[in-house]
Design a protein that fits this description.
heterodimer, A: 399 residues, alpha+beta, MetI-like fold, four-stranded antiparallel sheet, two-stranded antiparallel sheet, 14 helices, 8 strands, 67% helix, globular, B: 351 residues, mainly alpha, 0% strand
Amino acid sequence: MSDRRVFRTAAPGLKSPGRFGRIRAWWGGWPLGQLAFLGVLALLGWLFVSNVLETMARVGILPGFGFLSSSANFEIGESAIPFRAGDTYLRAIAAGLLNTLKVSLLGCLLATVLGIVIGVAGLSRNLLLSGLVRWFIEITRNTPLLLQLFFWMALTKALPAPRQAPALFGAVFLTNRGVSIPSLSLEGSPFGLLPALALAGAFGGVFWLLLRLSGRLSRRSAAAAAATAVIAVLLVLALSGGRPVVQVPALAGFNIRGGLNLSPEFAALLTGLVVKFSALIAEIVRAGIQSVGTGQWEAARALGLHDGQIIRLVVLPQALRVITPLTTSSYLDLTKDSSLAVAIGFPDLVSIVNTTANTTGQSMEALIILIGTFLAINLALSALMNLYNNRVALRGSTR
Amino acid sequence: MTAASPRLLTTLRTGLFGTRANTLVTIATLLLLSQTLPPLFRWAVLDATFSGNAASCTRDGACWAFVTAKLRFILFAFYPPALQWRPSLVILLLAAILTASALPRLWGRTLLIAWPLTILACWLLMQGAFTSTPVASNQWGGLPVTLFVWAVCFAAATPIAVLLALARRSTLGGLRTFSVLYIELMRGTPMVAILYVAMLILPMALPDALSLDKMLRAIVMITLFWAAYIAEVIRAGLQAIPSGQHEAATALGLGYWRTQRLVILPQALRIVIPGMVNLAIGFLLATSLLAVIGIFDLLNAARASAADPQWLGFYNEAYLVVAVVYFVICFGASRYSRWLENKLAAGARRP
């Protein structure tokens, strides 16, 4: 019963430090100097904030976040949620955030795909192809992203008018009013495509978790879980009378109707981000694959594996350990660089926060929202990628 | 020649037509190139207009006449043409100090003293000091502004970064926490937001007696922003120094600051120089964001040049000129970084 107490009093050596002692040890040497330094910084910060508040009071602006619920008198060019002039600032900022998330997520996805393709092409033994890739990477890496965005913007503006635009593969229109691509939607069903996908994801996730908790998670059972989830959702859709409809854009009158229309700004921003970051990711992929020694290839060949198997089973698991942390920081950079949208007129978070600051005069609150949101996105993304990274890294080190 | 050409031929033959798949790739690439290169060549050379005015330019080809007419504006923007020798001298001065810094032979105390002096000289030159006509910073523009802001911010951010990196590696809990929070805050924020802080918050936050102009505010905020990035690179270098170095220095009776100054930092900084060069390339490209807050850096000047009513809409030509300038500087710098990395690695291998 009192074993521990007896042990503690009888233990030889130094007295264990109390809570104060531990804090004191953590705080380290030069304690008063540190305090003084931090105190001066805090004083400076307080001085700045009080100056800002004073200026705001002089101009007649009430500090605080109350302006979020007042109505915003500007239109937003495009938005994932319905927005009209007169809705609240909070809704406007949410629309901007959704636009930022949309372009960042799509950008990360497409840049990864294109980056892997380009990175592998750059490793080709074909001199022409690898030379071409080399030049593509050098040019995109050594010119500013903003310049590339301006270029893509000028290019989309120079595209032909809808009536003269040729249809690529009969389904994609590149016009000066934006890019039209075929869209996939559900008709006659109680819920749309995105909720259906979310449902499938949630269902599959629950299944996966159950498998994992019961300790039966393997590659085959995970695939079975995914298949079950998809089939279940398809069944629900079919029973409720929904059917997928592919809508192909077509010329009608002076404009293109149907399908999914991407605005010129969105198309230019997405293209610019994808091109720039695919070059960066291609370099990372190349470095990752080259970091796997030739001995690994030779040993795998000696075991009788063919090229596809070597890449899948031997090279990729080792290369991913180099690639993942570097791609994570590329994704973070892409998300931050999507803020350049403000320069080409795409209504992302930064441009809406800027408009908010200009119309309400509450620039400090607006910038606090902006920086806080980006910090939160960054932390969430890096936490997510760290989870994945742990998985990749663990698989290599369990021997 | 005779000895080299068979080898070259063999390389080309195996490189282009080695296997069947390789031949297919070559043919596909050639097809792609044949689709893209001829129209580009036609635009840039055959259909291009090399002299004359805007009226003589066709819309089918490039208008190089625009470039000859507006090159001065793209490079110097609204700087008074009569005083143009000043920004030209600034470009030369900065090029000289950068070249000097690139030569490992010259690394030393002299260079550390030369940097602030050069920056001061550039500042005075741009301002039009010692003449009857001072030039306000809203008239500055073009390449000198890009290079100047970049050089000043990088030079000023480096000492702050060294202190931040040391604080993050130190055993002082308070300073370490501050350093971690500062670095993560800055690295999580987009540069555009930092520029908006310089534009919107700083004028309100500073007391009236200390009102800075837009250029100076941008320089202050960019310096604070870049310091976080440089600090992380320097921290990587500090981590690479074996703890034996610390212990040996302590055994010799050196205190903290002398250990850092004489033993740790000289080794750590040498390791991180290639990383710093790569960072500097990224920063040079990032200075183009100054356009967002309306400062006429190189890119913004090029955009403004194509908005001239006399030469309206020649954006492609303007952007191409700017792209070439950025590319030459950054490509050269990245080649230099690779050369330096090899040289330093070779130096480290030698006993």
